[in-house]
Task: inverse folding
């Protein structure tokens, strides 16, 4: 039951975001440019909400706060080093500056990213199905702008739309492998679940605060700032409702 839920939700998180991203490619550049920041704002709220209102409280129920927040700190530092080494790469706009020869590297990095996201969903499912659903929604929201950027890189490198979609779908399936591994491993060693939730929360907090939020701040302050705040709030509200 838990394994089936983890697989289904990992597909929702990975392929759901991918399909929405692919549909955005049908829009013109002006419309896509306008929509991407909206999706990023929503993703920020969803990721912060899941990490702070769901994952960490559940972890604290099983572990002393010092251990939970120590693991959280270690996770944030780990993802910082990982991104510094260019193992985990994020690109959230269609203007991502990557050389054409880097397209295969983007696919490998995206597969690794999806594997980690799937493992996060699997860890959440081991705690509760509602937490798994909230996590899958946050992953899907985060994947949409990233997949748009990956599509743009592959198309710029000369890939056809069909081939770019197929390759991105294959990398998205790595999330299912991550979810299965997480459920099997955490089922065998259940005491690891709260630590896994703390690391998962670290990944969401790091991506939201170190990667996504600075991108919003680079935009010119205007009426769109109120829209960003509203969409962040909507992302948090989604987590609360689920």
Result:
């Amino acid at each position: 039951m838990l394994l089936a839920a983890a697989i289904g939700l990992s597909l929702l998180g990975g392929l759901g975001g991918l399909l929405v991203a692919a549909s955005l490619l049908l829009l013109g550049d002006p419309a896509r440019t306008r929509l991407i920041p909206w999706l990023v704002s929503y993703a920020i709220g969803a990721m912060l909400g899941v990490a702070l209102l769901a994952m960490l409280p559940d972890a604290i129920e099983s572990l002393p706060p010092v251990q939970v927040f120590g693991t959280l700190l270690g996770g944030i530092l780990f993802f910082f080093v990982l991104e510094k080494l260019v193992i985990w790469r994020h690109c959230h706009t269609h203007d991502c500056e990557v050389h054409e020869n880097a397209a295969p590297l983007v696919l490998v990095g995206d597969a690794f990213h999806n594997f980690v996201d799937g493992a996060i969903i699997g860890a959440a499912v081991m705690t509760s199905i509602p937490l798994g659903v909230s996590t899958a929604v946050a992953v899907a929201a985060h994947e949409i702008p990233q997949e748009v950027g990956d599509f743009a890189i592959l198309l710029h490198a000369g890939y056809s739309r069909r081939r770019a979609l197929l390759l991105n779908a294959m990398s998205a399936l790595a999330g299912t492998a991550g979810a299965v591994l997480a459920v099997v491993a955490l089922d065998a060693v259940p005491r690891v679940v709260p630590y896994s939730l703390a690391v998962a929360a670290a990944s969401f907090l790091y991506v939201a605060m170190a990667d996504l939020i600075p991108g919003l701040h680079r935009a010119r302050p205007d009426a769109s700032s109120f829209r960003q705040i509203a969409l962040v709030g909507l992302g948090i509200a989604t987590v609360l409702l689920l």
